[in-house]
Design a protein that fits this description.
Blueprint: H1 4-17, H2 25-31, H3 36-47, H4 51-68, H5 74-80, H6 86-97, H7 101-107, E1 130-139, E2 142-146, E3 149-152, H8 156-171, E4 183-191, E5 196-205, E6 216-220, E7 223-232, H9 243-258, E8 268-270, E9 275-281, E10 290-300
Antiparallel strand pairs: 1-7, 2-5, 2-6, 3-5, 4-5, 4-9, 7-10, 8-10, 9-10
C-alpha cells in the first residue's frame, strides 16, 4: 500500500487521466484497493473538498475547450465526460459556472476554471507521510477532562504515549457528558524555563459539572489558531507503542511547523512553545491511513 504522499499524488494523476474515461469515486477507490468511504474521507481531509465534487469540477472545466468548437454537439460532450444525459451535464454546468453551456458558447463569457490540485515537496515528510501547512482558524471555547502527566523533556517520547494509551483503553470510560467519545484530544503545555512538559490525554465534554475524582480538566478559551493536518501510514495506536515512530513524527512535524513563516501565517507568532493540542478522530482510521489535526494559538505580530 502506498505511502500517503504517493497515494494522493497518484490519485490526482488518475483523476486527470480519467476525465474523459468516466472516472468516478467507485472506480478510483477500486483501483487503489481502498473503500470508497475511506477514500472520500482522506481526500476531503487533505484537500478540503469532496472527491466527487472535485472530479465533477475537473470534468466540467475540461469540457470548456470542447464547447469552444461550435460544431461539437452538447450531447456528445456530455457523454464524453461521463454524464448520462445532456440535461444532467447542463444542470451541473450551470451550478458550477452560473450559465448554461449554450450561453457560454454564445456570449464567450470569462469563466473561472477549476484547476487541478497539486501536492508540494514541503508537504512530504521524509518517511512518505504528509503534513499540510496551516490554515488560520478560529477555535471556539471548549472543555476537556483527562489525566494530566508531567515529564521532563528527556522523557516526552516515552511517557506521553504511555499516558495516551492508558487513557484510551482504561480511563476514558469513566468520564460522563462526553461530546464525542471517538475524538481524542491531547493537550500539551510546555514550561521551557523549568524544562518540563505537561501532556493531558482527554476528551471534550459538554461542561465541567462532573469531573471524576483524580481526573484533571482544562478550558481552552476561544482563540485564533494555526491548524496543521497530518496523514500517516500507521494505526493511531502505533503512536502509543512505537516510540521510534513517535520520535520521527514529532521531529518531522516540528521541523515543518518551525519552517512555516510565509504567506498569511507570517503575520503571526505561534505559541506552540506554550500550549497546543492534537485532535484525532479514531473513526477515521481505515486500516492503513490515519489522520490527525494539530492546533496552536496565534499571536498577531
Amino acid at each position: 500500500m502506498l505511502k500517503p504522499y504517493n497515494l494522493l499524488e497518484d490519485l490526482l494523476i488518475e483523476i486527470e487521466k480519467g476525465i474523459k474515461e468516466n472516472a468516478n469515486v467507485n472506480t478510483i477507490a477500486e483501483k487503489f484497493s481502498l473503500s470508497e468511504r475511506h477514500l472520500r474521507r482522506i481526500f476531503k481531509f487533505a484537500f478540503k473538498q469532496t472527491l466527487g465534487d472535485y472530479i465533477r469540477s475537473r470534468k466540467l472545466s475540461a469540457s470548456l475547450n470542447d464547447l469552444k468548437n461550435e460544431n461539437t454537439n452538447i450531447l456528445n460532450i456530455a457523454l464524453d465526460y461521463g454524464f448520462d444525459y445532456e440535461q444532467n451535464y447542463i444542470r451541473a454546468f450551470k451550478r458550477e459556472f452560473g450559465i448554461t453551456p449554450s450561453s457560454f458558447r454564445k456570449t464567450g463569457n470569462i469563466i473561472k476554471e477549476k484547476q487541478p490540485f497539486h501536492l508540494f515537496n514541503e508537504n512530504k515528510l521524509s518517511n512518505g507521510n504528509l503534513i499540510f501547512t496551516p490554515d488560520i482558524v478560529m477555535v471556539p471555547q471548549f472543555h476537556v477532562i483527562g489525566k494530566n502527566s508531567r515529564t521532563s523533556f528527556d522523557y516526552i517520547v516515552n511517557q506521553a504515549p504511555d499516558a495516551g494509551k492508558q487513557f484510551l483503553f482504561n480511563e476514558r470510560k469513566l468520564i460522563k457528558n462526553i461530546v464525542n467519545p471517538n475524538v481524542y484530544i491531547g493537550m500539551g503545555r510546555v514550561d521551557i524555563e523549568n524544562k518540563y512538559f505537561d501532556y493531558m490525554p482527554s476528551v471534550q465534554v459538554e461542561n465541567l459539572d462532573y469531573v471524576p475524582q483524580e481526573f484533571d480538566h482544562y478550558t481552552f478559551n476561544a482563540a485564533l489558531c494555526a491548524k496543521f493536518r497530518y496523514i500517516g501510514k500507521h494505526h493511531y495506536f502505533a503512536l502509543y507503542t512505537n516510540y521510534d515512530l513517535v520520535t520521527e513524527i514529532i521531529g518531522e512535524m516540528y521541523k515543518t511547523i518551525l519552517n512555516t513563516k510565509n504567506g498569511e501565517y507570517a503575520k503571526y507568532t505561534s505559541s506552540y512553545d506554550k500550549i497546543f493540542f492534537e485532535k484525532i478522530n479514531l473513526n477515521n482510521y481505515d486500516g492503513t491511513y490515519c489522520q490527525m489535526e494539530w492546533f496552536t494559538p496565534l499571536i498577531e505580530n
